[in-house]
Queue: 2 jobs
Job 1
Amino acid sequence: MFTLKSLSICTFGLLFSSAILANTNTIQTKLEKEGYTFVKQIPAPTGLIGWTGYKDEYPSTVFISQDQKYYIVGDLMDQNGKNLTEEAINTHAKGAVLDEIWKSLEKSTWIQDGSPQAPKIIYVFNDANCPYCHTFWKQARPWVDSGKVQLRHIMVGVIRPSSKGQAATILSTTNPAETFKKYNLAEGKSKIQDMPNIPKAISDKLDENAKMMDKYGFYATPALVWKNAKGEIESQQGAPKDLKKIFD
């Protein structure tokens, strides 16, 4: 399963040939229609044109025969067994994939927690029945209340059968952010009702959130995703022990 931590940083010198590029249109167009995004042309064995790219946020390399009859999606090994495409992926496709991941998080259904002008944004996969999510919410208050951090709670229903209905109830209120805040401030004394008949629009959004959580390799809440000082995406599954390391 693809996870955010599965992309490592390497360096690899690559060449670009505009003459060969013109010959790839047929298969390249076909793959693009199927959802593949081409990022960078890379060196390839004689008779093939190589590319790095990604589909559904999964990076890979594609090698297209110059006669436009065949193509391969996968790794390229040299005679010594060295994986040549892994370095190319990390150099050229990694950044594009991580940008897509961040865009996907932005488009998900989340609850605003903190100032929109906060310099740091952290996405949190959150289940209403998760005690560790509540603990993290409390621990994060100094950074959120000071305007340094903005949490974006991506609501999911994965712990109990009632979780999805409770998330739907929160999202259905006129002010989900205020409802979510009051729920956490109540210290468990005020429970969120489980919505019995969830409107399809909200149900679909919660299902998409759950699919995203699974896609990125998370199986427990809270699960955090953020950008470090270098602009690189990092992640944490479970309540973090050292919040300063993430928040500061």
Job 2
Amino acid sequence: MSLLFKGRAQGAESVKIGAFQMLIMFFTDHLRQAVNSLGELWRSPFASLMTIGVLGFSITLPSTLYVLVKNTEQISQQWEQASEISLFLKSGVTDASAQQLLTRLRLWPEIAEVAYISSEEGLKEFQILSGLGDALNYLETNPLPAVVLVVPTSKHASPTAAGILLDKLRKEREVEIGKLDIEWLERLYALIGIAKDLVTLLAVLLFFAVVLIIGNTIRLNILNKRDEIVVMKLVGATDAFIQRPFLYTGFWFGFLGGVMAWVTVLLILLWVDYSMQNFMEKYQVSFDLTAMDLSTLIVMLTVSVGLGIAGSLLSVQRHVKDIEPR
């Protein structure tokens, strides 16, 4: 009985070793075909470089737009201050009453920040910015009212929500006038929406073009190796085995094209960073251009490799099956 149990255990162990060896052979075969596909590209450097260059520059534009959309989110956070509401208080409101108003407003869920500028502070600021200097000292009374600056939360920073908040603030008993540039906010959000739609449309069109380019390149490779494919099918090779090197070729096209696009986008961002800084300084907004970080690189390579495999897959599934020995 013990000998029978021992024999069964040795048989199970041999099965496990065989399955492990088959797994090793599977990955080894895939690695060999991947390296051979890369060697095929290396043996025709000019044609491969031309194809990779076309793919790289085709991916560069949507990748650049992707980075710009990512930076737009950061800019929109800075532009939330564009929805700032100015509340001009009544002339009879004292500083104590104004502080009570601020205390109430800070409890509102629609409001992120509240700041108070007294009439004296407003006059000093106007004296500096206007350049009138000591001429304002001859005024008998301060004509400027106290002002409360209200910054809505990001959820209530849209033109519609900010307008509703403005109507609500105007009903406060201390408020004389409420001011908000609704038209500027509407133009701002409309511009951002149009930019995002254009980014999506251009990305879809260019990605479709990349798939067509890779598919056509793989199709030409298949036609050039027609005789080899016929011989392989005569000796019993399956379509999956024949298609695998072409799929790896699409993988390398996508990967190398993505790397080229990454380098190109990085150079473009370095070139425009200085101009962007000067533009944002005019609006008194601090902004650091987010370059190609690791997450962006991973997304770009994933998309480019996926496009390469998709283009090659569409081509090999159609043309390899059509090649049959006569």
